[in-house]
Amino acid sequence: MPHESPADIAVLDAAIAQQITPFADTVERLDEIPGIGPIAAQVIIPEIGLDMSRFPTAKHLASWARFAPGVKKSAGKKKGRGATGPGNSYLARVLGEAAVTAGHTDTFLGERYRRIARRRGNKKAAVAVGFRRRGPCVRPHRPRCRPWWRRPSATRRR
């Protein structure tokens, strides 16, 4: 895409905006989650869809997105290449970027990311934050999720 002109990109952005207009309320709900902005929401909605009946739980969704941690051990030795297996790599990439972005915020997700990154590294922290905490609220058909990602001290009155 290095040969794309700004005019071509503007045309594509306008087409995406037109296609995502019916899902504006879902984009707004996803935008409330730290690390997920309007652009990430515009990727998440088409990749997952609105029919969540095929995902019984958030863990099934994360596994389908290739964002579930894969651990294969036998006799105390790790097996495999460390990848999380086949799945939707576009969605996994967006969730990973959102987890890293949330790691730079002053929220529960940011604290969790930094705590895990200190011990285990940035990549494992991104998977842990993206898999454990985002799955339940990324499912667009759900009513508003309670804001568990905010720090308790930020929401408590003194």
UniProtKB/TrEMBL annotation:
Pfam families: Transposase_20 (PF02371). This is Transposase IS116/IS110/IS902 C-terminal domain-containing protein. Residues 28-106 form the Transposase IS116/IS110/IS902 C-terminal domain. Residues 136-158 are annotated as: Disordered.
